[in-house]
Amino acid sequence: MRHTEWNIIFHTLVGLRARVLLHPDPGLRGVEGRILLETRRGLLLEADGRRLWVSKANAIFLIQLPGGSWVVVRGEEIRGVQSERLKRLERSKGVGWLVRAGEKRRYTWGQPSGEDV
């Protein structure tokens, strides 16, 4: 499945570029780099030759999709590792809701990405 702005939270983030827009630690705001590792609670970014640990909690990220476009993602949306995020989708009987920018989108296993059901 392709990475799109609406299904990015169900994909692995390792290898994608990310920028920290908002974070409780002011020193991490504006940091941009490649995601080297993703854990339940944070991301390891390689930025300017240094490796930085960035917590997902209370953070807002700008993540670059493989096609080159950027998408804003709240840390709460990517809480947990990919398998846990997929289990949350499965636990809700194949339907998950994501509220972003005042819109409600619904995900199902068989739904083509980017369409509402």
Care to describe what's here?
It catalyses: Endonucleolytic cleavage of RNA, removing 5'-extranucleotides from tRNA precursor. Pfam families: RNase_P-MRP_p29. GO terms for molecular function: ribonuclease P activity; RNA binding. It is found in: Cytoplasm. By secondary structure, this protein is mainly beta. It has a single domain (8-108), classed as Roll (SH3 type barrels), CATH 2.30.30.210. The protein has 1 helix and 8 strands, in the order ββββββαββ. It has one helix at residues 82-91, and strands at residues 17-22, 32-38, 42-47, 50-55, 60-64, 70-74, 95-100, 103-108. The strands form 2 sheets. A 6-stranded antiparallel β-sheet has the order 4-3-2-1-5-6, with no helix packed on it. The chain has a two-stranded antiparallel ribbon with strand order 7-8. It is globular.
Overall pLDDT score: 81
Report, as a whole number of angstroms, the end-to-end distance. 18 Å
Q: Indicate how many domains the architecture comprises.
A: 1
CATH class reads Mainly Beta
Q: What is the CATH topology descriptor? A: SH3 type barrels
Structural class: mainly beta
Percent helix, as a range, is under 10%
Radius of gyration: 14 Å
Number of H/I helices: 1
Task: Kindly state the number of beta strands.
Answer: 8
By CATH, the architecture is named: Roll
For the largest beta-sheet, the strand count, sense and barrel status come to: 6 strands, antiparallel
Mass-distribution shape: globular
Low-confidence stretches: 108-117
Order of helices and strands: EEEEEEHEE
Strand order in the sheet with the most strands: 4-3-2-1-5-6
Strand composition percent:
35-45%
The CATH H-level superfamily is Ribonuclease P/MRP, subunit p29
